[in-house]
Amino acid sequence: MKGLAKGLTYTLKNMTREKATYHYPEEPLPLPDRFRGIQKFYPEKCIVCNQCVNICPTDCITLTGKKHPDPERKGRIIETYNINFEICILCDLCTEVCPTEAIVMTNNFELAEYSRDEFFKDLQWLDENDTNIRKEN
Amino acid sequence: MVRTEEMLLNVGPQHPSTHGVFRLVVKIDGEIIQEATPVIGYLHRGTEKLAEDLQYTQIIPYTDRMDYLSAMTNNYVICHAVETLMGLEVPEKAEYLRVMAMELGRIASHLVWFGTYLLDIGATSPFLFAFREREAIINLLNELSGARLTFNYMRVGGVKWDAPEGWIDKVREFIPYMRKELEGYHDLVTGNEIFLNRVKGVGTYTKEDALQYSLSGANLRCTGVNYDLRKEEPYSIYDRFDFDVPTEETGDAFARYQVRMAEMEESLKILEQAVEQFPEEGNILGKVPRVIRPPEGEVYVRIESPRGEIGCYIASDGQKEPYRLKFRRPSFYNLQILPKLLKGENMANLVVILGGIDIVLGEVDG
């Protein structure tokens, strides 16, 4: 009986302690800056080097480039850029290899859609995802 | 005349006490288990085969998903294997960050075990308390690596991030807090008569059995074998820390409980020393070529994960991808003794024995 009483004392002590839960949907969840969420893409920074496509462990990134419209300038610019969030594991390797930081992580993590097709995010969507961008990349 | 007959019963694959998708076919005669056959493979993702098409850096996020309760040790084992094969030097600061991350992970993993084990047995509140403390650890690791469970934190030759500002102090504050909570757990559970009746003398095996079944980790140490790879073959910088290897003699479920609880205290001891010795200056990534191409050859390294000996074998043919990769996953090996332990036991003891082994299905199935 002694052990039981001891255990009950611990439980009673914990009743007055601070709550450990968050009011999550009503209040935003506090997240550290480094948190890896949905990527933000800057089309103007991209140099179409294909490194993010090559490093992606799940092959969820596809991109195409085109010649620079200004014939004076060399290099290519981005035409389409898609990330398939059905298979993206948010591993952070694409942002790690990007030489121009054209793709960065944000702290947004809410990825719920009504159909599977909607997980296929295109350049425009990724460009517009510009809240809570991670400071350190 | 009453006729009795044996019955086949499926426990799982969706059963709360199996902690994942694991099926156990038990042949019962009344309440007594005659035979138990584990059926595994529901979570098989073919990590080893997938790795043959991936560069070494790309394999690291896959290892997070094997033993998802202590992903840091899995990160470490693959990095350590590649570093050994290439003969890379890892900067001291990176080693300290790795050790701290691994030990925090070990405590978090044991906390999950503690909580869910007692939940299986029928005590609900320890689960809530254990997860509260685990949340504190997960927040620390989230600040360090940017993810709560699938860290992808280590890299070949170092780590991805340096400790953020104030992180070391947070770890320092966490140590006394966790010590106090551990004392509370002992008050709550260890002396509880109902709990003791439930676990003492249940699922007992001898030292010889444990060695024959190549058990490792707490499952081995509960029989009195003093074997911990952090002491036997010190990897990383574990030779710099002063800690004990807790062992018990009885080899029952209660011994395994005691070993794991004591291991958390030892991990706190290591953390305390690591925080004190932590170098403020230094690199976090050693001199690593841009494309990791280990020389031709093979390597096997093993480290102590919360569940036992986790090993990584790499056969390299000098390419960017491994020719063959194999993980020795401790949960898979520890699970093999289950049919032997269950034979002749009461049906109610099934969850006590299965929970006591502490398996993670992501690791069993690979």
Automatic annotation (TrEMBL), chain A:
<feature type="domain" description="4Fe-4S ferredoxin-type">
    <location>
        <begin position="79"/>
        <end position="108"/>
    </location>
</feature>
<comment type="similarity">
    <text>Belongs to the complex I 23 kDa subunit family.</text>
</comment>
<dbReference type="GO" id="GO:0005506">
    <property type="term" value="F:iron ion binding"/>
</dbReference>
<dbReference type="InterPro" id="IPR017900">
    <property type="entry name" value="4Fe4S_Fe_S_CS"/>
</dbReference>
<protein>
    <recommendedName>
        <fullName>NADH-quinone oxidoreductase subunit I</fullName>
        <ecNumber>7.1.1.-</ecNumber>
    </recommendedName>
</protein>
<keyword id="KW-1003">Cell membrane</keyword>
<feature type="binding site">
    <location>
        <position position="98"/>
    </location>
    <ligand>
        <name>[4Fe-4S] cluster 1</name>
    </ligand>
</feature>
<feature type="binding site">
    <location>
        <position position="49"/>
    </location>
    <ligand>
        <name>[4Fe-4S] cluster 1</name>
    </ligand>
</feature>
<feature type="binding site">
    <location>
        <position position="94"/>
    </location>
    <ligand>
        <name>[4Fe-4S] cluster 2</name>
    </ligand>
</feature>
<dbReference type="Pfam" id="PF12838">
    <property type="entry name" value="Fer4_7"/>
</dbReference>
<dbReference type="GO" id="GO:0005886">
    <property type="term" value="C:plasma membrane"/>
</dbReference>
<keyword id="KW-1278">Translocase</keyword>
<keyword id="KW-0479">Metal-binding</keyword>
<keyword id="KW-0004">4Fe-4S</keyword>
<feature type="binding site">
    <location>
        <position position="88"/>
    </location>
    <ligand>
        <name>[4Fe-4S] cluster 2</name>
    </ligand>
</feature>
<feature type="binding site">
    <location>
        <position position="56"/>
    </location>
    <ligand>
        <name>[4Fe-4S] cluster 2</name>
    </ligand>
</feature>
<dbReference type="InterPro" id="IPR017896">
    <property type="entry name" value="4Fe4S_Fe-S-bd"/>
</dbReference>
<dbReference type="GO" id="GO:0051539">
    <property type="term" value="F:4 iron, 4 sulfur cluster binding"/>
</dbReference>
<dbReference type="GO" id="GO:0009060">
    <property type="term" value="P:aerobic respiration"/>
</dbReference>
<keyword id="KW-0472">Membrane</keyword>
<keyword id="KW-0520">NAD</keyword>
<keyword id="KW-0874">Quinone</keyword>
From TrEMBL, chain B:
<comment type="function">
    <text>NDH-1 shuttles electrons from NADH, via FMN and iron-sulfur (Fe-S) centers, to quinones in the respiratory chain. The immediate electron acceptor for the enzyme in this species is believed to be a menaquinone. Couples the redox reaction to proton translocation (for every two electrons transferred, four hydrogen ions are translocated across the cytoplasmic membrane), and thus conserves the redox energy in a proton gradient.</text>
</comment>
<keyword id="KW-0874">Quinone</keyword>
<keyword id="KW-1003">Cell membrane</keyword>
<keyword id="KW-0813">Transport</keyword>
<dbReference type="GO" id="GO:0005886">
    <property type="term" value="C:plasma membrane"/>
</dbReference>
<keyword id="KW-1278">Translocase</keyword>
<dbReference type="GO" id="GO:0051287">
    <property type="term" value="F:NAD binding"/>
</dbReference>
<feature type="domain" description="NADH-quinone oxidoreductase subunit D">
    <location>
        <begin position="292"/>
        <end position="365"/>
    </location>
</feature>
<feature type="domain" description="NADH-quinone oxidoreductase subunit D">
    <location>
        <begin position="120"/>
        <end position="291"/>
    </location>
</feature>
<dbReference type="Pfam" id="PF00346">
    <property type="entry name" value="Complex1_49kDa"/>
</dbReference>
<keyword id="KW-0175">Coiled coil</keyword>
<dbReference type="GO" id="GO:0048038">
    <property type="term" value="F:quinone binding"/>
</dbReference>
<comment type="subunit">
    <text>NDH-1 is composed of 14 different subunits. Subunits NuoB, C, D, E, F, and G constitute the peripheral sector of the complex.</text>
</comment>
<dbReference type="InterPro" id="IPR001135">
    <property type="entry name" value="NADH_Q_OxRdtase_suD"/>
</dbReference>
<dbReference type="GO" id="GO:0050136">
    <property type="term" value="F:NADH dehydrogenase (quinone) (non-electrogenic) activity"/>
</dbReference>
<dbReference type="InterPro" id="IPR022885">
    <property type="entry name" value="NDH1_su_D/H"/>
</dbReference>
<keyword id="KW-0520">NAD</keyword>
<dbReference type="InterPro" id="IPR029014">
    <property type="entry name" value="NiFe-Hase_large"/>
</dbReference>
<feature type="coiled-coil region">
    <location>
        <begin position="254"/>
        <end position="281"/>
    </location>
</feature>
<protein>
    <recommendedName>
        <fullName>NADH-quinone oxidoreductase subunit D</fullName>
        <ecNumber>7.1.1.-</ecNumber>
    </recommendedName>
</protein>
<keyword id="KW-0472">Membrane</keyword>
<comment type="similarity">
    <text>Belongs to the complex I 49 kDa subunit family.</text>
</comment>
